[in-house]
Amino acid sequence: MLAAAGRRVGGRLLAAIPAVFGVVVLTFLVMRVLPGDPAVYFAGGPSAGQAEIDALRAEMGLDRPVPVQLMYYLRDVATGDLGRSLTTGQPVMTDIRQRLPASLELTFTALLLALVAAIPLGILAALRPGSAVDHVVRFLCTMGVCMPTFVTGLLLIYVFYYLLGWSPDPTGRIDIFASTPPEITGFLLLDFALTGDWDGWRAAFTQLILPAATMALFVLAPLARMTRASMLAVLGGDFIRTARAMGLPGWRIIVVYALRNALLPVLTIAGIVFSTMLGANVLVEKVFSWPGVASYALDALQASDYAPVQGFVLLMASIFVVVNLVIDLLYGLADPRAVAE
Amino acid sequence: MSAALGRPSLLRHAGWVLRGNLVTAFALGGTALLVLVALLAPWLAAYDPIATNVANAMRPPSAAHWFGTDQLGRDILSRLLYGARLDLAIAAAAVSLSFVLGAMIGAFCGYHGGRLDRAVGRFVDVLMAFPLFVLAMAMVAALGNQVQNIVYATAVINLPFYIRFARTEVAVRRQAGWVEAARASGNGGARIVLGFLLPNILPNVAVQISLNLGWAILNAAGLSFLGLGVTAPTPEWGIMVAEGARFISAGHWWLVAFPGLALMLAVLCFNLLGDGLRDILDPRMRT
Amino acid sequence: MTAKLLEVEDLRVAFDTRRGTVEALRGISFAVPAGGVLGIVGESGSGKSVASLAVMGLLDRAGSVTGGRIRFDGQDITHAGGAELRRLRGAALSMIFQNPRAALNPIRGIGRQIADVLRAHRPLTRAQARDKAVALLEAVRIRDAARRADAFPHELSGGMCQRVMIAMAMACEPRLIIADEPTTGLDVTTQKAVMDLLAGLTRERGMAMVLITHDLGLAAQYCDEVTVMEQGRVVESAPPGRLFGAPREAYTRRLVAACPTPSSTIAGLTPDAPPLPAAPVPATLPPGTPLLLEVQGLKKRFPDGTLAVDDVSFTMRPGESLGLVGESGSGKSTISRMVTRLIDASEGEIIFEGESIGAIPARDFHRAPQRSQVQIVFQDAGESLNPRFSAFDSIADPLRRLAGLRDSASLRRAVEDAADGVGLPRALLDRYPHQLSGGQRARVGIARAISVQPRLLVLDEPTAALDVSVQAVVLQLLEKLRREKGLAYLFVSHDLNVVRMLCDRLIVLRQGRIVEEGDSARVFRSPAAEYTAQLIAAIPHFRPEVVEA
């Protein structure tokens, strides 16, 4: 069983290689189309001498044919060199490493919030189709999909910051005057907890909760909807009828027989939801001035600074591949049929 | 199972569903209203959507300005009405572009299978491995800040979904008895795809289109919210939210709330319509 | 008889549907004594399955008991509450379902599923329940039960899954087991093994059984008493000998006649139908008549490596009908598709009227002149009709493509001729498949295939999805067409009785290879291969003539 799972993961990793490779090449090509000459930027703007620019271009390999440049780029990516950001002046790798925990903390918290809310709601709705609970859940789901994340975020700010004054100034991960914890994991909540600084933890948490809730609301709908639909489908299945015909207790039918089966498609959709969240991060991070990788990439994009954008897209694609791998693995553990395929 | 015949029974069924399902009727009405508003915006709007009037800036909703005015004193309602044109046009153009391309490619791949199918499948996987919204951002940035580039970007990120959708829909039917029967009756590959398979997956695609329109609107608005694509004075819902965002912490809610609401209602109508369509076309799929 | 264990009196069940209330049971009564076996037979729509679900209290939300009474062991359980039913179900009365693989939880080991049942009704520890589950698996003759207890349903064959279901249903020694089409979808040899096991175990343990089936032979063989149902009513009820030997009601008589037996003939299946035309083709053609079809060394290997067809050769003369018989996995359908040129063979020759059609790739065969000469009728008539085509469009399609009919008047005439030929009322031509009955759909499928005047018609289980009475009519139609038009039939079926009636010659297939070939009557009378003998022996039958005597 373990060996089979191992083989499966290995196979999946191998299958992911062309996808990641494609992403790298595609990013490179897209970036080549972008207007602007990096050599001009590096040389200090259009005022720089032509000779200087040409020299830099030669040094950066920009005078070579595109396929050769692609080879160079691939070599750089393979060695972990994503280039240097013009706006921050640091290697892109360093910038990303600094900012990634902020984005991940936000995304994971949001996903957790969404799952905790969506699964029980979906189950309740499925157990009593047509009831008031069902209608409320379906209404919530319909509404949730329709709200653009950036509008939700702004409205939450209006209500909880301006009207109620419950949350702090919605900018950044932590009050600029508060002390940050020593960096252990980069995840503020974890770092505060590890150092036992609970005031700091609460401060970071209040700062996190609005953006996380914004994103959770966005993905709540597909998750709850999927839970409800798959629970309904499973409850109508033959083997549930068998379990009832054999006089199994009601809770056992619902939890052991129905729910475990119903969660399988939810697991699959959770992977898709995660990748949607990676995209939606850009919007939420902008609304809340969240210092994550997405706002970093957006700033770079607006400043025609392409190395960070390239690095960001690559990072997102890799995270996506990893997440899918994890989902696959979990699926393999949860569903014996998956291993057999 | 209806005892009546073909087309009329579909219409009658639709009527039955609409009567029994007020939500779908509402969605249909809402969609029609949206389209009407977009078409008639110049006649409906009381003010010029671009004309600034700083003396009249930041007014909350009133009798003169039902939805208030923005930081430059422009009437929000008028801007919303004109914005409907742009947002709907972008969504419609993007979705039809990706639908036509995607359904064709997907259907042929699904029917023929083989090496081409695998290559396209791999390409779609690569495309979908991107966080698609980020891809759209990069595309608009690369192609330039123009409205048509939002259309292309939105179309491209929708494309893999249509290809995959049409591919699987066709692939599950490829082995169906009636497709084999069509081959035995002397139909070639192209005729089977166009004459048999596409008409059969069309209802499901229609549902998908309706749902995708909502998604496309959200995407386009998201892009312009980030300052990509549509530029400043143009009335567009996403950019209106972006401009209002700066003032939300000061309590000027109407700058954000109304364009936000407009977005929400538009997406809501399309989504409900999609669900309703599914009910009409296949009552068993009811959720 | 002794005291009744289960008594159903004037039971009425109605379903709320989108089109109003539909009465599924209109007052049925039956009873089962302790230890007895009652068969309930009927065609689709007779309400036999609804009756079983009503007894178990398992009707879905839309269905409800609107009248009558169900008494189990003297206790009225017609409107029993959830807790009461839960105590009874699995412990005192239990059920076995059709499609066993879907009826088992796909992600739970079979041993644990049996243990779940045991622990729901008895105070057992986990380990005790598991031991008991293994013992039960042994009782249903699953080899290596201790290891197999950890297997999941998808790792077992359909027959094995049904054994697991039986073990589950018997786990708590119920007094009554309801088996709803327990062997439908299983191969005939598996069916016999499962039914023998089920009947043996219930008898051994003194359990009563209700066997619900569409197969009269099965009911005759395993039941003490048989109840015939039609459209929510009981037609008649009697011991099988009397019922099948001397049916009193007209419906039962028709049903019994329509059921193929080792001695029945096509004409005998539908006694009320007009007589068949005389066979125009002499049984033996003059020597030197060219062969219609010659298949040599046909092989098909699928991309996953399985060899579905392994070196099959046979010939057909014009106007001959040849049967291909086999269980699932025998490769019979694959052969039919290769001959029809819908898929390509991996190896071998297919020669039609002296020309090698096997050499033309399947994807280009639609342009070949032989396309109209070789036609096929598919297994599931409903599934083989384009849902967006009316019956007219479906029949017209090959006429447009292959006969080149373009103008609407001649097209309509040709379609109507074809419809008349298969006895499809012209008024139905405008209908869509979902508006037609199973028999009507079958007729459309046949009309489509014969509209272009083929010389060879491949029939791939054309009646497998039909009720016996409809099957009888369709077989009668096929025989009539063959005699009228001198068509050659390649008839693919799992049903030996049907093949015997329709085919001069038959080929028995097993796992892609030919096991036996010969004259139908001879093979049936004295099979040469042991496998053929097993197949023949496994068919459940009733012999009215024997019962009467």
Automatic annotation (TrEMBL), chain A:
Q: Which organism is it from?
A: Teichococcus aerophilus
Task: Kindly list the places in or outside the cell where this protein is found, as annotated in its UniProt entry.
Answer: Cell membrane
Q: Which residues form the ABC transmembrane type-1 domain?
A: 100-331
- Which ranges does the record mark as transmembrane? 12-34, 106-127, 139-164, 204-224, 262-284, 312-334
Keywords of this protein's UniProt record, alphabetized? Cell membrane, Membrane, Transmembrane, Transmembrane helix, Transport
Give the matching Gene3D superfamilies: MetI-like
**Stored InterPro entries:** BPD_transp_1_N (IPR045621), MetI-like (IPR000515), MetI-like_sf (IPR035906)
Stated name of the protein: ABC transporter permease
Q: Does the keyword Transmembrane helix apply?
A: yes
Q: Family assignment?
A: Belongs to the binding-protein-dependent transport system permease family.
Q: How does it sit in the membrane?
A: Multi-pass membrane protein
| Keyword Transmembrane in record | yes
From TrEMBL, chain B:
Annotated ranges, domain ABC transmembrane type-1: 84-274
Q: Which SUPFAM superfamilies match?
A: MetI-like
**Which keywords does UniProt give here?**
Cell membrane, Membrane, Peptide transport, Protein transport, Transmembrane, Transmembrane helix, Transport
Give a Pfam family name: OppC_N
The record gives the membrane topology as: Multi-pass membrane protein
Extract the InterPro entries matched here.
BP-dependent_transpt_permease, MetI-like, MetI-like_sf, OppC_N
Subcellular location field: Cell membrane
Give the stretches traversing the membrane.
Answer: 21-45, 88-111, 123-144, 150-167, 213-232, 253-273
Domain of life of the organism encoding this protein: Bacteria
Name the protein family: Belongs to the binding-protein-dependent transport system permease family.
What protein name does the entry list?
ABC transporter permease
Question: What is the scientific name of the source organism?
Answer: Teichococcus aerophilus
Output the lineage of the source organism.
Bacteria, Pseudomonadati, Pseudomonadota, Alphaproteobacteria, Acetobacterales
From TrEMBL, chain C:
> In which broad location class does this protein mainly occur, judging by the first location in its UniProt entry?
membrane
Topology with regard to the membrane?
Answer: Peripheral membrane protein
Q: Which GO terms describe its molecular function?
A: ATP binding
Which InterPro entries does the entry link to?
AAA+_ATPase (IPR003593), ABC_Ni/Peptide_Import (IPR050388), ABC_transporter-like_ATP-bd (IPR003439), ABC_transporter-like_CS (IPR017871), Oligopep_ABC_C (IPR013563), P-loop_NTPase (IPR027417)
Task: Tell me the domain of life.
Answer: Bacteria
Record key words, sorted? ATP-binding, Cell membrane, Membrane, Nucleotide-binding, Transport
All copies of the ABC transporter domain together span 6-256, 293-536
Q: Where is this gene product found?
A: Cell inner membrane
Q: Which CDD domains match?
A: ABC_NikE_OppD_transporters
**Family statement drawn from the similarity comment of this UniProt entry:** Belongs to the ABC transporter superfamily.
Instruction: Output the NCBIfam families linked to this UniProt entry.
Output: PRK10419.1
**Protein name per its UniProtKB record:** ABC transporter ATP-binding protein
